[in-house]
Amino acid sequence: MVVAADQDRIRHTVEAVWRIESPRLIAGLTRLIRDIDTAEELAQDALVAALEQWPQSGVPRNPGAWLMATAKHRAVDLLRRNERLARKLQLLGHEQEIEQRQQQDGPPGGADPEDIQDDLLRLVFTACHPVLSREARVALTLRLLGGLTTEEIARAFLVPEPTVAQRIVRAKRTLAKEEVPFEVPYGPELDERLGSVLEVVYLVFNEGYSATAGDDWMRPGLCEDALRLGRVLAGLMPSQPEVHGLVALLEIQASRSAARTDASGAPVLLPDQDRSRWDQLLIRRGFAALVRAEELSAAGGGYGPYTLQAAIAACHARALTAAETDWARIAGLYEALAARAPSPVVELNRAVAVAKAYGPAAGLALVDALAETDTLKGYHLLPSVRGDLLARLGRRAEARREFEQAAALTRNGAERTLLLERAAACGE
């Protein structure tokens, strides 16, 4: 007999496994049935089966494999019942034609897409197909690859949640209607989709690095997926500077993961981190990727946004202590980034760098100008940054109100606790 405590434990286990395995499930099922919407439904069916069976039979030794096997059994049953067998055969014939063309023509740069046996990567490129709008490509891929909710995606884009939900529904319908093949493209089509793919990988990593919702400060599984996909892309497109720039950024950011929380899981901000816990192997990999990105960028006429962000991350990685950080260079890099890829979030980060380099008053002027535009209304980091600058200027009562506002806006439990602690430290 399974007691209530065991049922709760198993339920939490199922939820954790689902969070990790759902992208792989959906990707593998999409390869099998060539329909993303149906693949997502089958994956959900497997989740329901786990919730029903595991409390009685126990958690299997390999829960991810159990979910995949269960979902594939249901997929096979569905295909057997499906009266549209002719359509499936037509899709298989189309796939064979693609394989023959690749063998005859050969892919660009000596990289063979058939060597990339990665269903997740195929899913990313499928969801980034040109038949979809840019916003729909990114939203759909975040949902399928990262298992993010529409709420989390909406917060990443700073847009209303219903807007994201509509984009995802319409995107899946469009892919099904257009019968988009589940494949890694090659040639000019690969180049066309690259920008969207890089943005997706970037946003997935960010969601793992600083979770927008829940009780955990980080979701390492998402960081690992994003970093792995970035490395695969670098192997596939070795002559693209921004691919290496993104990989450099992710490697260096990931190097800090162990130092970003304390023993209890509470957040540790960058200035307070024990830099001896930073992963030096990841930092070296990031530096190597940055050198490659800078070399290719110089030949191509200028740095892209991911290369610039990697250069900023490298400034932090090179500093042995927080006091040794070259904030003037970081402020200059943010200025270049704002010119290359204008964004209110970039401007907020530039304000932080300016404050560190030239004093809190200079940074506060930039933050106040941003606040007047309402472009970051509802974005919790705006009052958080403002609170920090006000505290540094000795305006503690104002700082406390800003920290309390930021705490009310964030959806992350660990971050809310940190912000309320900072508010309390400012006193009455």
In short:
This protein has a domain at 4-82: Rna Polymerase Sigma Factor, Chain: A (Orthogonal Bundle), CATH 1.10.1740. Helices cover 72% and strands 1% of the residues.
What topology emerges from the helices and strands here?
Blueprint: H1 4-33, H2 36-57, H3 63-81, H4 85-105, H5 119-127, H6 134-146, H7 150-157, H8 161-178, H9 188-209, E1 213-214, H10 220-236, H11 241-254, H12 280-300, H13 305-318, H14 327-340, H15 344-358, H16 360-373, H17 381-392, H18 396-409, E2 411-412, H19 413-425
Parallel strand pairs: 1-2
Largest sheet: 2 strands, parallel
CATH C-level label of the domain at 4-82 = Mainly Alpha
Fill in the CATH topology of the domain at 4-82: Rna Polymerase Sigma Factor, Chain: A
Order of helices and strands: HHHHHHHHHEHHHHHHHHHEH
Strand tally, please? 2
Task: Tell me the radius of gyration.
Answer: 23 Å
How far is the N terminus from the C terminus? 54 Å
Q: In which range does the helix fraction lie?
A: over 70%
Structural class based on helices, strands and sheet pairing: mainly alpha
- Average of per-residue pLDDT values: 84
Domain DUF6596: 193-293
Family: Belongs to the sigma-70 factor family. ECF subfamily.
Pfam families: DUF6596 (PF20239), Sigma70_r2 (PF04542), Sigma70_r4_2 (PF08281)
Protein name: RNA polymerase sigma factor
